[in-house]
Write a structure and sequence with these properties.
heterodimer, A: mainly alpha, 4-stranded mixed β-sheet, two-stranded antiparallel ribbon, B: D-Maltodextrin-Binding Protein, domain 2
Chain lengths: ~575, ~350
């Protein structure tokens, strides 16, 4: 560790030197010049819609002043020539507005004109004496957070109790029936909202909330941290160009020291970013820890990719793809805040809850952060494993390198067990995402889709471990294990890792539709039997594939299919037996 | 001169090979693809905002209504996706809390012809809320218009109205004002990045020395290096416009859109090359170029039509004086920056500073 620290200091110093005086001067000059220009001529906000809709108007048309007042509309005066030629999208005559039914542009223009007219008349009516007649409505709007008990709700859309007769209170559906509830009760006082209250709105001012707020939260963290990780990764990668890093590797340091040392400065900055953004958002300590889980995952992922990618281009490609996927994983589940088992799949929801000042249970916190934290650890371990001369500079295809990476962890007999454990977080994340989305989107076939995909995902993961363990990196000095040992170790490792699914039971996951079945399938079924029995399945399928792998690619494919079938049969029996 | 052109062409071919081999083009395309995929997601969200019915996403929802049944309630009830239940305040709020109701609406007034107050409670942070409040907004606008008409006699000014249910069936405005401009501008940014990258690579690997030993003048050399990044711009833009055309969003002034993008491409390619010639170091070049592009983006808002607006206008076929003026200004700036960049880079090469 002392070595790692020394390397870290050196690395930080080197980074500082990269921007020479000339570059800094250039950047500062550009910044200052822009600032000066903007200060003298403040630019208008970008308005890509300006003048986009050309309309033709008769000077006597009552809608002309409204159209002219809106900068999205370009007005040509005329009696129909421009409209006929197609230059104008609408024709405003003294009596009517004409549009073209076969033109989307014309219909869009009509919609814009409708808004323009409303804005114009609103502005005019502001001068009226009788404001009750001019503005007969005033609106109070509250967006109130709530938690829906999933147990009470079927799959998909929250369904209310059957409508009609037994509806609580004085409910009635017919128009103009009895109830005129006393107007004194204010639902606002009744609700005691914690959300912000928007008062005195006009109908146009009812702004639908941005539907993907969780996306913005995600970006607030991932954008700066992603940029940093990218710089770090391209640095690491540069060491691999032309064997530059070979000097460092030949120093009397462990690969752990080398990689961790070179990563520490950026890692420290990542933690700073997490802290700064969390403070800026006001998300509290748990929010900070949750953000650490995914930022560290992002960091580990980029580091791993830097060790894996063969060229800077490949690195940036992989990075963009990985970051986009991670973003999707972070913001999609958080879009369902009233369903905690879904929302807490993403640590971003912990941040969001922290911002609202609500408490997060320990189970929910673990559920949200554990998979990504474990994943970060696994990726880091693999990256360290790959930090050795034979692997860093080898010229091989991408898939082969990926398998080398897995194999690199399993240089010793027992570490294969570890490899089995390490793939689990990824399987975990993939399976949960499939399950939760399938269940929430109330697909009829939710369980079926989940079953099918999770079998494939699990067997692919085990197959990868087995294939990697079969020949752990061409150049690595390892005695190959017998297929039997290999299969058993990988299978048991997977089973051990699988037990991390138990964390699911901490969030009320069982309340989701099909959750009991899903848990059983994930190897954490009810009772001791449900927990221990899966070890036989995993050992058996891994064993099968290990023997297949020993005979070559084609055999591996065949045994993979066999493993999938076996797994499917097992699930069938299990679901019939226990549930 | 003919030999000069041939030499430029040869250099350009070499550059093109480099670019293809480096796979930056492939990466550039893939990045744009991801961008497009992401935009598609945003598109879905924004379409929902724009007009929920377009997505067929108007959610089935239960509304608890508190108040008299002859005000806003009939408007809600007329919507096919809303189930309206008349309740007292306490029950409505309880029902909202436990998820039975998706919205609480209360309407109150002191007298029938006074101001009416509507209180609306919706669940925070849910997609459904966005769709519901979009729907509510339109209903409230209709309701207000009807109330105004009822009370027209009390107004001095005449009510000018335009009410229509006609809505575009596709997110026309979003596509033409956001998606197309962004996807046209992205290749422009990339062109400058590719140009800067190419030069700093040559500088790093010291291959400029080799190139200089060829019987080629430094000016021709710089031109040759600039040509490929510039030409990639119209190519990519044409692909994007073609994809939009296939999806039912034709571009009207294809030539002018491609022309505008190419002109901006020349501008940024020149900028990227100049930055690389100044900075040399690869990653520092990228950082400096990014800062420069940001600055240019801010300053471009001062043009008669900002670049995004210009592309939108040309894409829908509006050619008007301010747009033409903008194009002309961009053209002059591009030519000037090209000359400056070539002269400057040439100087640096001749001085062996690269």
């Amino acid at each position: 560790m002392r070595n790692a620290l020394r390397l870290a200091v050196e690395e930080a110093r080197r980074q500082g030197r990269r921007f020479d005086r000339r570059t800094l001067l250039l950047m500062v000059t550009v910044g200052l010049a822009t600032g000066a220009i903007v200060a003298v001529f403040p630019p208008p906000a970008p308005s890509p819609e300006t003048a986009l809709f050309t309309v033709e108007a008769d000077p006597a048309s009552p809608w002309l002043p409204a159209a002219a007042a809106d900068d999205r509309i370009r007005v040509l005066e005329g009696q129909g020539q421009a409209f006929a030629s197609g230059e104008a999208l609408l024709l405003l005559s003294p009596e009517d507005v004409f549009y073209r039914g076969d033109s989307e542009a014309s219909k869009a223009a009509l919609e814009v004109l409708e808004q323009a007219v409303r804005r114009w008349i609103d502005a005019r009516l502001r001068a009226e004496d009788d404001l009750d007649a001019a503005f007969p409505l005033t609106i109070t709007l509250v967006f109130e957070p709530r938690t829906v008990d999933v147990a009470a709700v079927g799959p998909g859309q929250p369904e209310p109790e059957p409508d009609g007769g037994e509806a609580p209170g004085t409910g009635g559906e017919g128009p103009g029936e009895e109830p005129t509830p006393e107007p004194e009760v204010d639902v606002l006082e009744e609700a005691e909202p914690t959300g912000a209250i928007q008062r005195d709105l006009r109908p146009e001012e009812v702004e639908p909330p941005f539907p993907i707020r969780s996306l913005l939260l995600t970006f607030a963290y991932v954008l700066p941290a992603g940029l940093l990780a990218q710089v770090h990764a391209s640095n690491l990668h540069a060491e691999r160009v032309r064997h530059r890093g070979v000097l460092l590797l030949s120093a009397p340091l462990r690969s752990f020291d080398v990689l961790v040392g070179k990563s520490l400065p950026s890692l420290g900055l990542t933690v700073v970013i997490a802290a700064v953004v969390t403070v800026a958002l006001g998300a509290g300590l748990l929010g900070f820890l949750a953000s650490l889980s995914f930022l560290l995952f992002l960091f580990a992922l980029t580091t791993f990719l830097a060790v894996l990618a063969r060229s800077p281009r490949e690195l940036s490609l992989l990075q963009v793809a990985a970051t986009t996927l991670l973003n999707a994983f972070l913001f999609l589940p958080a879009m369902f805040p009233s369903l905690p088992p879904v929302a807490f799949l993403s640590p971003v929801h912990v941040v969001a809850t922290g911002i609202r000042g609500e408490a997060v249970g320990l189970g929910q916190f673990l559920y949200a952060t554990l998979p990504l934290s474990l994943g970060a650890f696994a990726l880091g371990a693999v990256a360290v494993g790959m930090t050795r001369e034979e692997l860093l500079f080898s010229v091989r295809s991408g898939t082969a390198r990926l398998l080398d990476a897995l194999g690199a962890v399993s240089t010793r007999r027992w570490s294969l067990l570890l490899a089995g454990v390490l793939v689990v977080p990824f399987v975990f994340v993939a399976q949960l995402l499939v399950f939760v989305l399938a269940a929430v989107l109330s697909l009829e076939a939710a369980l079926g889709i989940f079953l099918g995909l999770s079998i494939v995902v699990e067997e692919v993961a085990k197959g990868a471990v087995v294939w990697a363990g079969r020949r752990p990196g061409k150049d690595l000095p390892t005695t190959p294990l017998s297929p039997t040992t290999l299969g058993l170790l990988a299978g048991v490792g997977f089973w051990v890792g699988e037990k991390s699914y138990l964390v699911l039971t901490l969030v009320g996951f069982e309340d989701l539709p099909f959750a009991r079945e899903a848990l059983a399938v994930l190897g954490t079924g009810p009772g001791l039997v449900g927990i221990t029995v899966p070890v036989f399945l995993h050992a058996a399928t891994a064993l099968l594939m290990a023997h297949g792998a020993a005979r070559g690619r084609g055999w591996l494919a065949a045994t993979f299919l066999a493993a999938v079938v076996l797994h499917a049969a097992y699930n069938y029996v299990l679901l019939g037996r226990f549930l | 001169m003919a030999t000069g052109a041939r030499v430029v062409a040869t250099l350009a071919r070499k550059e093109l090979r480099d670019v293809l081999r480096e796979r930056s083009l492939v990466v550039a395309f893939l990045i744009q693809m991801l961008l497009a995929g992401f935009s598609a997601l945003l598109l879905a969200g924004l379409t929902a905002l724009h007009s929920p019915e377009a997505l067929d996403a108007a959610p089935e929802a239960d509304v608890a209504f508190v108040g008299a049944d002859d005000g806003f309630a009939p408007y809600l009830r007329a919507e096919a996706n809303l189930r309206v239940t008349l309740l007292d305040g306490a029950t409505a709020v309880d029902g909202f809390r436990d998820g039975t109701y998706d919205a609480v609406v209360q309407e109150r007034w002191l007298e029938r012809d006074a101001v009416r107050t509507l209180t609306i409670i919706l669940a925070d942070g849910e997609l459904e809320t966005t769709l519901l409040s979009t729907q509510f907004r339109q209903l409230l606008i209709d309701y207000e218009t009807d109330l105004r008409l009822e009370r027209e006699g009390r107004l001095e000014r005449e009510l000018v109205l335009l009410e229509t249910d006609v809505r575009p069936e596709v997110p026309y405005t979003f596509v033409y004002t956001t998606l197309i401009p962004l996807l046209v501008i992205t290749p422009v940014f990339l062109s400058g990045a590719i140009a800067g990258d190419a030069l700093s690579q040559e500088s790093k690997t010291r291959t400029l020395l080799l190139l200089r030993s060829a019987p080629v003048g430094p000016t021709v050399l710089v031109f040759g290096k600039l040509l490929v990044p510039v030409l990639l711009v119209p190519l990519q833009v044409l692909v994007w416009l073609g994809l939009f055309w296939l999806n039912g969003f034709p571009t009207r002034e294809v030539g002018l859109v491609v022309g505008a993008a190419t002109v901006m491409g020349v501008l940024l390619t020149a900028a990227g090359t100049a930055v690389a010639a100044t900075v040399k170091n690869e990653s520092a070049t990228q950082a400096a170029y990014a800062v420069l592009v940001l600055a240019l983006g801010v300053v471009s808002m001062l043009l008669p039509r900002d670049p995004l607006n210009l592309v939108s206008l040309l894409a829908v076929g509006t050619v008007e004086p301010l747009g033409v003026l903008t194009l002309a200004v961009l053209g002059v700036l591009a030519a000037a920056s090209l000359v400056l960049a070539v002269v400057f880079t040439r100087q640096r090469i001749v001085a062996d500073a690269l």
